[in-house]
Amino acid sequence: MHLPDGFLAPQLALALWLLTAVIVGIALRRLAASRDTAGAAGRPILMGLVGAFIFAAQMFNFPVAAGTSGHLLGGVLAGYLLGPWASTIVMTTVIGVQALLFQDGGLLALGANIFNMGIIGTLGGTLFARALALTLGNGRSARIGAAGVAGWLSVMAGAGVTTLELGLSGTTNVSVGLPAMLSVHALIGVGEALITIAALTFIATTAPDLLGERSTVQHSILRRAVAGFGATFVVIGLATLFASTNPDGLNSVAQALGFSHFQAGAPFKLFAGYAIPGLNGTASTIIAALIGAVAIAGLLFGLSRLAASQSDKR
Amino acid sequence: MSRTTPGGRDARAAVIAALLFVLSIALLPMGAYVAIAFSWFVVITAGAYVGISPLRLARRGGIALPFVLAAIPVIFLRTDELLWSGAIGPLSLSISGAGLRIALTAVLKAWVSVQASIVLITYADAPTIVTALRRMKLPDAIATSAGLTIRYLELLRDEARRMLRARTARSASPVGTGRERIGGSISWRARTTGNLVGSLFLRAYSRAQRIEEAATSRGATGSLSIGTLPVADPRLTIKVIGVLALVLSLTLAGALLPRL
Fold first, then answer.
1. Are the C-beta atoms of residues A46 and B205 closer than 8 Å to each other?
2. CB of B245 within 8 A of CB of B23?
3. CB-hemisphere CA count at 13 Å for A261?
4. Do B212 and A268 touch (CB under 8 A)?
5. What is the pLDDT of residues A94-104, one digit of tens each?
6. Among A87, A272, B70, B256, which is least packed by CB within 10 angstroms?
7. B18: which chain A residues are within 8 Å (Cβ-Cβ)?
8. What is the CA radius of gyration of chain A?
9. Is the distance from CB of B95 to CB of B76 less than 8 angstroms?
């Protein structure tokens, strides 16, 4: 689900960078405001360690059926451990380090990746889980069950939004890509949900204070109703968005936003055909191709030698 | 080019160059293969200067290629510039030239862009890049979190590996198929994995507590500066101007060079 560079229209990639920066900025302010009062959320060292933990936890997988395995992305889990704002910062960091260290996701597409997984998956997923848990009475099983549902939904929403972004960029066909992506991620989401539930149950049993288990105060009916309405709204909104996605509509949006001109032809051409001036026909093309091939081979050889000598110097 | 200690080099120019370069590749129009090839030569030249051979770079760049799956539908579902249409059994299929161009351009751009970020991370290691980003006004909370994540990444991954090995030794992974399978149902396996995740978190948490206590006893106040900020690169402006010129010429090349 980590988008590499090249698949997103640059305007969309830059717009998502901007949107991500604004929301991460809000998360930073909320975090700074709560730093004095919050326990786990305001601890930078813990945030760094949780980042490394999410990285390592993504290595854990379990076989589901032949050839496929369930594994963890960890957005909602991080949200439960640190709170929505601190976990958004942690996931932003994790996705950034993944792009930087492991080339998992592009640099220009980093804004989109943080938006899809860090903001929709983590911030959205955690806030949704809180609302759902509140609706269900906010007891221990309600909270953990809500985390499972939110985990599944965060994977589905992330995959859906990624496909819509690709559709807006013209690099995929949404009417085919969306069902394909959602059906695959429905399974991946089950893995996410099960691991999130099991991990939270383990932590709640072993170290209940880390999850704020003490705060099982009864909330008013009104508050629960509002939370329930919010959670339902999110589910219905997502379902409607994905169910009614019309590729023609998406194409017209792409055109309106000006993405489609990236598919336009060249305004004028410097070299008409690949031909050697003064020579015509097939011979000219073959000679041009040969010269090109020799030049490229020479260049590659030269650069390999240079790389070897530079590497020796180190 | 000699490597200095982590954080001991001003990598701002390299970070700016990589970002602008990737942006200029993204701005290249569909079918601008010649311009993409040109940008690839720029990347492999830079790669050679930091000590990676073009072949190794090309191989490691392959990490982005599986994403081509996302672009495959446009090849068959677009109806413009039909190259071929016919029926295979009950399926009627067509291949669109425009779709093929979109898919190929996206894959090539992804491939070259990945190589650009590999060159960046080879030139400057992760802590150096975080330090450069910190100098470029990356918020302190993110820089501190990123620095610590990078620092403790391998440690926790090692811990995870040990736990995975222990799990395998206790037969939580299936051997054989059907009735031969051992290790319980899917939910049993998910619970086992979840318990590992939970237990890894507790270890990370107690480690964080120990580090916090050590940091507090040494007078830390919350912001953890990862490495000292290096001496500013005196030629930063010239380098950035050079990068801008390169990026502009790439964009121009995209507009002027022939497209297929």
1. yes
2. no
3. 8
4. no
5. 999 999 888 88
6. A272
7. 107
8. 25
9. yes
* Non-local CB neighbours of B218 within 8 Å, separated by 6+ positions: none
Strands A68-71 and B82-88: unpaired
**Which residue from B minimizes the CA distance to A65?**
B186
B198: closest CA among A143, A204, A93?
A204
Distances (CA, A) of A150 to A196, A312, B179: 10, 51, 34
Whether A235 contacts A145, CB under 8 Å: no
B247 touches chain A (CB under 8 A): no
The confidence score (pLDDT) of residue A25 equals 94
Please give, rounded to a whole number of angstroms, the shortest distance from the CA of B121 to a CA of chain A. Answer: 7
- Which distant-in-sequence residues (6+ apart) come within 8 Å of B162 by Cβ? none
CA distance A212 to B200: 19
Note whether A196 contacts B77, CB cutoff 8 Å. Answer: no
Q: How far apart are CA A3 and CA A111, in angstroms?
A: 10
Give the residue from A16, A94, A102, A107 with the most B CB atoms within 10 Å of its CB, the best one to mutate: A107
Over the stretch B141-157, which tens digit does the pLDDT of each residue have? 898 889 889 999 999 99
Paired tokens of A50: 């949780």
Q: Read off the pTM.
A: 0.82
The average confidence (pLDDT) of chain B is 83
Q: Which of B161, B186, B202 sits opposite A207 (nearest CB)?
A: B202
Q: In which residue are the tokens 């933990």 written?
A: A53
Q: Is B61 exposed, middle or buried (0-12, 13-18, 19+ CB in 10 A)?
A: buried
- How far apart (Å, rounded) are the C-alpha atoms in residues A165 and A177? 11
Q: Which single residue is written with the structure tokens 């249409």?
A: B85
Tokens 């700074």 appear where?
A32
**Of B107, B190, B202, Cβ closest to residue A198:** B190
Backbone angles phi, psi at B146, to 5 degrees: -65, -45
Cα–Cα distance for residue pair A257/A249, rounded to 1 Å? 12
Amino acid type, A55? F
User: For B228, which DSSP code?
Assistant: P
Q: Are A107 and B67 a contacting pair at CB < 8 A?
A: no
User: Tens of pLDDT along A279-291?
Assistant: 556 666 667 667 7
Amino acid found at B59: R
The DSSP secondary structure of A36-104, one letter per residue, reads: TT-SGGG-HHHHHHHHHHHHHHTT-EEEEETTEEEE---HHHHHHHH-HHHHHHHHHHHHHHHHHHH--
